[in-house]
Amino acid sequence: MIEVKSISKKFENNKVLFDINSHFERGKTNLIIGQSGSGKTVFLKCLLGLYNIDSGEIKYDGRSSLKMNDFEKLNLRRDMGMVFQGSALFDSLNVLQNVRFPLDMLTDIDSEEKNERALKFIKRVNLEDALNKLPSELSGGMQKRVAIARAVVMNPKYLFCDEPNSGLDPKTAIVIDKLIHEITAEYQITTVINSHDMNSVIEIGENIVFLKDGIKIWQGTNKEILNSGNKEVNDFVYSSELVKKLK
Amino acid sequence: MIRISFSKSCKKSVLYKQIFKEINDLVLDSIPIVSILSFFIGGVVAIQMALNLESPLLSKTLIGFATRQSVILEFAPTFISIIMAGKVGSYITSSIGTMRVTEQIDALEVMGINSLNYLVFPKIIAMLLYPFVITISMFLGIIGGLLAMTLTGVPSEAYIQGIQTDFDGYHVTYSYVKTLVFSFVLATVPAFHGYYMKGGALDVGKASTQSFYWTSIIIILLNYIITQLLLA
Predict the structure, then answer these.
(1) CATH of domain A1-79+158-165+179-247
(2) By three-state DSSP, how is residue A118 classified?
(3) Which of A142, A213, B43, B69 has the least C-beta neighbours within 10 A?
(4) Are B113 and A105 a contacting pair at CB < 8 A?
(5) How many whole angstroms separate alpha carbon B194 and alpha carbon B203?
(6) Which residues of B are less than 8 Å from A134 in CB distance?
(7) pLDDT tens digits, one per residue of B39-80
């Protein structure tokens, strides 16, 4: 579980996050939603530790980010997996090598065991036929699946996904959403997903944090969001005419 | 950047693999272009020397002597390094810059890997073999001169005698000192431009151009300073 207590973040004179309190639950797909420029990515990067927060505290299963030394921060990083918006696969490595990469870099287990572990996750994302393909030979959806396998191969406690559906067709987007959702439940990971895709919100949003202009406006589940009664949330959720008609 | 790239080292087995990859990409892959350039420019230098030494009072051995001095003192270490700023420098900036743009560097950092150590340190170590490339350049430059002289009718004995005249080993030492300094510049300045670049694909191209610009200027300035210190 990740607890966020009154965090703020600014870049020079531009304040991006304002006193955010929230929590992200273990074994659930937690979504951060909001319009472009609402501070979602900065919030996610603060959770990842890529940005230092200006005030407040983030607790990872009770471990406070404020009290960690460099070694503890490094260890915390190794409990995290990340799926980037553009997949961020290493161009010169094939699928197997990409998934094996964290094991090669961070563990001392023998080569066969590394292959076994990598293959287990490659099979989990249904890519066993593409082992030797380079990222440039894969479709967007396949790249995302490799990125997911690479992110979970170290058995992380926390999985962060930055707009995992961007650039994908609706059908593939649902496949990716479901895959993340299943892996989260299967390995009891605290998963935090940045998204502005309403399909994802409805499909897998077990705990949703809504941001607007760097302020947390609302938090709830996918069942509650459609009837939140909050004007800003409704403006976001029912921004499409189609959804309005469906309602 | 340099301090961080030497600290918090990645696993040795991974680093060795990266170093060998960089030796291949940065050093061995540069040998063909350096060889061709050195051979023909050595030839051109010798022809131009011959053109300016038409007086019967001047010995033909001067052609070999002047070609050797030009190639060892300046052409091989300095001008090949500027050419390498284009070849190796652009490669380093664009490869690291692309990794920055496509979030691959962020991915390394999130995994808890020191990305500077993983990406930059092997390049610095690989470039320690750069003097080997310059040795080839010196050798082929002088051989190119010999061939050009043979083709233009100057006796090869005179050229060979010329390249042995007044040979000073210190000039070779000076040349290798310069080469080692330039190898460090060639690895670090382009890496800096790639690693700290911001923006998208278009900016990778801009960063490569900036990297070539600054690497060349730094090489020329250091060339002057080292020459002043070691030869003046």
Answers:
(1) 3.40.50.300
(2) helix
(3) A213
(4) yes
(5) 10
(6) none
(7) 999 999 999 998 888 777 888 889 999 999 999 999 999 999
